[in-house]
């Protein structure tokens, strides 16, 4: 029976105050309970409301032109952010260990954590693979991502036809610089990393096992190689119709299997190469190279009967000196005087450079705005092979080779904290052995370990048992929990394979040639023409709702200056974000060949919130910590990165 209308009204009059009182009582007891359980509860509620209040205010932003040196007096909003950090100090985080009495929180990696962060958003996704181009035509021996997301790669010009003819076929056959006969095949391409189209490029001198890096203007400067390319310079600008310009016989020494890195002043240093126990400094963006060469006996001391110190690992360290790892020894040296400043402890276990080709990367470099010059610089050296692995496999002429000549690759993965007073190697283990792998810094700040073999060494026909399962290295996890197996590919990628992180957050994977020519039949590992893209776990669709988007990308960023941009999150969260929920990651695009991504680094910047839709950060303080040039900027929300945008870090 329906209730009488008047009766309902009467009930309402009686019940509403009772209900109100009841709800109040529940709320009160809840708050008392919560206070008892978490003394920070009330403070956080209060701060939360202040936080919201601040958003409605419209205080002026510090200038974004770099005029602010980052030491400006702390304004009201920053004070509130500081108070919030204090409020969260006792909160547990995924990464932090127990806070010491009054001292800074120490992370599991031994570095202090200044701003405790909330855990990352979780995903069960292990990544996905897809083939984007079935037959790209040119083997990706060495590869550079350009500041327009075009990925340039090339192979040797010397060893016969590629799988891509100049179009129209037979009509465009430039004389091969080396052999003096017409060559109708393409040996270098520009691959559009976002749209998967290709454009052929012209190479004259042979870039076989050469080196390269991006200069401060975004020009690819390729050095060395073989034959008439062995001391050549090749320049490629990033513009829609640009092609290589090159000049042979300009370097001070032959640079075959050398390493290269940009310096803080924008010059480039080229180190080593087969039988070249020297390094030289070259100016960028020019084919006129004044010889500025230094003898460097360390390169001679670290070579052995099969060399094992080629493509040495080279980094510009934050004091402006260089770190060099060759075979199993490493040093810090002053490139202005060729003086070794210190030798670090040797790394036992085997050899790490070509042909024992291990992997190396520097972990993301966290910039503390309060002490911007003081950064941690932790270098990883992982995998590789026994110093004796190359000879048995390389000396066998039989095809296919007997299985017993392939020695197991190394599985250890080691870290050295360069800024420690007494740096030493801390040993961890990969989940599987790997030689000729790649180690890329992902937009999330984790490392991706992929490609390579479980057995053998670098060199044609020298790899076996391809390692098709990538691993994620999570530097902030506790020792023992840092590695995770990701979804495997089914395409072997061993010798002369490469990979690159794109601004979309995807990873392009290309190349692999265990043969000295383009061979597609009758061999265990045919020349690989398929291009793949790997979507790391952070691209999981289920995380899209958390994904930030950069709305007003800055183009240039000045050292030490404030810069800001507007952003949005796909599904705006119900609560306003904490500043610690967001980070800016600046990733320099490396030149990747032979398992080593040269000139790769990531800078991690704290974020200041400026209203509900604007984030601000202080740019890296100087070009020693972050060499000048192009970086991909990602806004990262608790481990979920935005698509990246290209920014140029400049002095002026
Ligand atoms: C470093 O390599 C050299 C040459 O292979 C070897 O003689 C030496 O014992 C190695 N050092 C360590 C610590 O493994």
From TrEMBL:
Gene3D superfamilies: Galactose oxidase/kelch, beta-propeller, Immunoglobulins. It comes from the Eukaryota. Keywords: Signal. Residues 56-118 are annotated as: Disordered. The keyword Phosphoprotein does not apply. Residues 1-36 form the signal peptide. Residues 547-648 form the Galactose oxidase-like Early set domain. Pfam families: Glyoxal_oxid_N (PF07250), GO-like_E_set (PF09118). Transmembrane segments: none annotated. Residues 141-538 form the Glyoxal oxidase N-terminal domain. This is Galactose oxidase Art d 7. It comes from Heracleum sosnowskyi.
């Amino acid at each position: 029976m329906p209730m009488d209308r008047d009766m309902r009204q009467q009930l309402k009059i009686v019940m509403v105050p009772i209900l109100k009182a009841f709800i109040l009582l529940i709320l009160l007891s809840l708050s008392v309970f919560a206070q008892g359980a978490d003394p920070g509860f009330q403070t956080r509620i209060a701060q939360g409301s202040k936080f919201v209040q601040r958003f409605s205010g419209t205080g002026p932003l510090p200038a974004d032109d770099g005029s602010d040196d980052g030491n400006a007096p702390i304004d009201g909003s920053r004070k509130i952010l500081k108070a919030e950090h204090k409020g969260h100090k006792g909160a547990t985080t995924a990464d932090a260990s127990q806070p010491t009495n009054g001292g800074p929180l120490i992370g599991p990696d031994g570095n202090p954590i200044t701003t405790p962060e909330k855990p990352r958003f979780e995903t069960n996704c292990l990544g996905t693979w897809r083939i984007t181009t079935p037959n790209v035509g040119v083997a990706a021996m060495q590869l550079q991502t350009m500041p327009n997301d075009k990925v340039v790669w090339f192979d040797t010009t010397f060893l016969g036809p590629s799988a891509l003819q100049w179009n129209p076929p037979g009509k465009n056959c430039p004389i091969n610089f080396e052999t003096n006969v017409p060559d109708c095949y393409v040996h270098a391409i520009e691959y559009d990393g976002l749209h998967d189209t290709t454009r052929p490029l012209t190479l004259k001198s042979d870039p076989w096992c050469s080196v390269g890096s991006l200069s401060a203007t975004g020009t690819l400067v390729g050095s060395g190689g073989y034959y008439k390319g062995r001391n050549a310079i090749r320049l490629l600008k990033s513009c829609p119709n640009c092609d290589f310009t090159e000049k042979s016989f300009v370097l001070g020494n032959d640079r075959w299997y050398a390493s290269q890195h940009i310096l803080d002043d924008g010059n480039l240093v080229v180190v080593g190469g087969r039988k070249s126990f020297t390094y030289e400094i070259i100016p960028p963006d020019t084919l006129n190279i004044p010889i500025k060469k230094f003898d460097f006996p360390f390169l001679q001391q670290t070579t052995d009967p099969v060399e094992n110190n080629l493509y040495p690992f080279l980094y510009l360290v934050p004091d402006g000196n260089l770190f060099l790892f060759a075979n199993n020894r490493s040093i810090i040296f002053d490139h202005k005087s060729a003086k070794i400043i210190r030798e670090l402890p040797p790394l036992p276990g085997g050899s790490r450079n070509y042909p024992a080709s291990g992997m190396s990367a520097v972990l993301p470099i966290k910039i503390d705005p309060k002490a911007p010059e003081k950064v941690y610089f932790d270098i990883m050296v992982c995998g590789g092979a026994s110093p004796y692995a190359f000879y048995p496999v390389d000396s066998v002429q039989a095809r296919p080779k007997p299985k017993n000549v392939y020695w197991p690759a190394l599985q250890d993965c080691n870290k050295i904290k360069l800024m420690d007073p007494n740096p030493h190697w801390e040993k961890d283990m990969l989940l599987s052995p790997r030689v000729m792998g790649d180690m890329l810094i992902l937009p999330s700040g984790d490392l991706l370990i992929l490609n390579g073999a479980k057995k053998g060494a670098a060199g044609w026909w020298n790899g076996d048992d391809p390692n098709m399962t990538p691993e994620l290295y999570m530097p902030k996890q506790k020792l023992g929990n840092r590695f995770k197996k990701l979804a495997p590919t089914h395409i072997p990628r061993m010798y002369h394979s490469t990979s690159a992180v794109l601004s979309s957050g995807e990873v392009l994977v290309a190349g692999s040639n265990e043969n000295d020519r383009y061979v597609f039949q009758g061999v265990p590992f045919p020349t690989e023409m398929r291009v793949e893209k790997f979507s790391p776990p952070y691209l999981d669709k289920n995380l899209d709702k958390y994904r930030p988007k950069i709305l007003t990308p800055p183009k240039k960023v000045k050292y030490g200056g404030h810069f800001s941009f507007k952003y949005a999150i796909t599904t705006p969260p119900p609560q306003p974000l904490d500043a610690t929920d967001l980070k800016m990651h600046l990733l320099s695009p490396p030149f990747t060949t032979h398992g080593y991504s040269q000139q790769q680094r990531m800078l991690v910047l704290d974020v200041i919130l400026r209203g509900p839709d604007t984030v601000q950060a202080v740019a890296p303080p100087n070009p020693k910590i972050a060499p000048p040039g192009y970086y991909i900027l990602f806004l990262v929300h608790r481990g979920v990165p935005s698509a990246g945008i290209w920014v140029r870090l400049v002095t002026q």
